[in-house]
Amino acid sequence: MKSIFINGGKKLSGEVLISGAKNAALPILAASLLCEGKHRIANVPRLADATTFGRILQNMGVTFERQDSDMLIDSTGLGNPEAPYDLVRTMRASVLVLGPLVARMGRARVSLPGGCAIGARPINLHLMGLEKLGASVSIEHGYVVASAKRLRGAHIYFDTVTVTGTENLMMAAALAEGETVLENAAREPEITDLANALIQMGATIEGAGTDIIRIQGVEKLKPMDYTVMPDRIETGTFVIAAAITNGSVLIKNCFPAHLDAVLSKVTEAGAAITVTDGTIQVTGQREIKPLNIKTLEYPGFPTDMQAQIMSLMALADGTSVINETIFENRFTHVAELRRMGADIQTEGRTAIIKGVPMLSAAPVMATDLRASASLILAGLAAEGQTVISRIYHLDRGYENIEQKLSALGADIRRV
Ligand code: EPZ
Predict the structure, then answer these.
(1) 22-227 belongs to CATH 3.65.10.10
(2) Where in the chain are the domains?
(3) CA 366 from chain center: how many Å?
(4) Can you give the pTM of this predicted structure?
(5) What is the pLDDT at residue 79?
(6) Which one, of 397, 305, 394, 299, lies nearest residue 6 by Cα?
(7) What residues form DSSP beta bridges with 251?
(8) For strand 107-111 and strand 82-83, is the pairing parallel, antiparallel, or unpaired?
(9) How many angstroms is it from 313 CA to the middle of ligand 1?
(10) How many helices (H) and strands (E) does the chain have?
(11) What is residue 117's predicted lDDT score, i.e. its pLDDT?
């Protein structure tokens, strides 16, 4: 079991390159199931989740090969439309194969993902949408079993905004007969990236990025040659790393327009931020101002940045309030930050953070992907040596994070 050791107190400075977006790459990898042939998907981050996704595809008879940051996928041999529990339980995003399999093969058997640290994570809306498209769906022994001769377009209303639900059904609708309307669809940039990949494959999609998406089904699609967008959550994590260490960092290969809510909040906390189309310059200030944050669906403040900005607020000059409206249990990082001297009280989905002058390094434990990022950020600022265990969580969503941070001057290593 590896751990990460950080000797805190170093100001970060220099340049960092952002990797491809995990949450765009995963649905785009799933989209390769929609037609046979050789797909090239570029800028896929080297993450455990991408490797797991490749194994799920392989398990179905699809070949995949990584060439540097490209994934070469040949889905001609797709034969076994199944995603087994032992793979799905390690990565909930596996549920994204459901829509493409039913659309291409007329059937699928995909393990229910089960819950995770941050919440129950039901997929009822994914299944509701598939039924609306004409699939018969049942739950058998922990698996979703779905089948349909040919999916037919439908009007699907999401009573809760769901990112992967929107993605799953957009992919299924691409091969359905007739028009599908997704109403109250998720507007995250990852949806638009997936839609652009599907359009390159020959799909007819309008409105991606808005809450109404119209898809005209087509008979067949063709293989893609697509480059995944930069990861906005990795970008936001480095913005906070610069702010929390009072450093000065130039973030490159990013897309600032995807981070308006995060950049405006970190500016409000006192950091100096200047952007160009593809770069963000962040300079921290000694005094960090407290904030009130409410996580919302895009374009609101992203829930995937909540743990990270809480670490910054732990050192603010005053009291901050964070309201987590998306997931029911996304404060698992609070107990670990308290071990480092943070003064945080939680009441349901609300956290009250009273800033302290300094965090004290301690042995802490990562509980989920973004919680582990918040512990790294706290460790960068804390006095002394922080040791973070269970860092396999981190490897799911951040490519080479220690190398990127030590290149910026952090004293960080994995043992
Ligand atoms: C995606 O998860 C992301 N994962 C998550 O990122 C992100 O936190 C989340 O969207 C919200 O932005 C990927 O894209 C792979 P949801 P997803 O469906 O799609 C409820 C990370 O750290 N809901 O938008 O699973 C659900 O319980 C991960 O990279 C239903 O009730 O999230 C939640 O409260 C963590 N029924 C809310 O909707 C459903 O059928 C939003 O969930 C589906 C969702």
Answers:
(1) yes
(2) 4-19+230-414, 22-227
(3) 17
(4) 0.97
(5) 95
(6) 394
(7) 16, 280
(8) parallel
(9) 25
(10) 14, 24
(11) 81
Nearest to 346 by CA among 365, 330, 362: 330
Angstrom CA distances, 110 to 70, 141, 346, stand at 26, 11, 36
Choose the catalytic residue: 48, 116, 272, 356.
116
Burial of 233 per CB tally in 10 Å (0-12, 13-18, 19+): buried
Distance, in Å, from the CA atom of 411 to the CA atom of 51, rounded to the nearest integer, reads 28
Strand partners, 377: none
Question: Does residue 394 contact residue 369 with C-beta atoms inside 8 Å?
Answer: yes
What is residue 229's DSSP assignment? P
- The CATH class, in words, for 4-19+230-414 is alpha beta
Domains 4-19+230-414 and 22-227 share a fold: yes
| CA 206 / ligand 1 centre spacing (Å) | 23
- Residue to substitute in 182, 326, 401 for testing ligand 1 pocket (most ligand atoms within 8 angstroms of CB): 326
| Secondary structure (DSSP) of 240-268 | HHHHHTT-EEEEES--GGGGHHHHHHHHH
Residue 159's DSSP bridge partners are none
Is-catalytic flag, 116? yes
Q: Per residue in 32-47, pLDDT tens?
A: 999 999 999 999 999 9
pLDDT confidence of residue 180: 98
- Residue 25 in contact with residue 193, Cβ under 8 Å? no
**What pLDDT is attached to residue 114?**
75
Positions of the chain with pLDDT under 50: none
Over residues 117-147, the pLDDT tens digits come to 888 889 999 999 999 999 999 999 999 999 9
**Tokens at 362, concatenated:** 């301690």
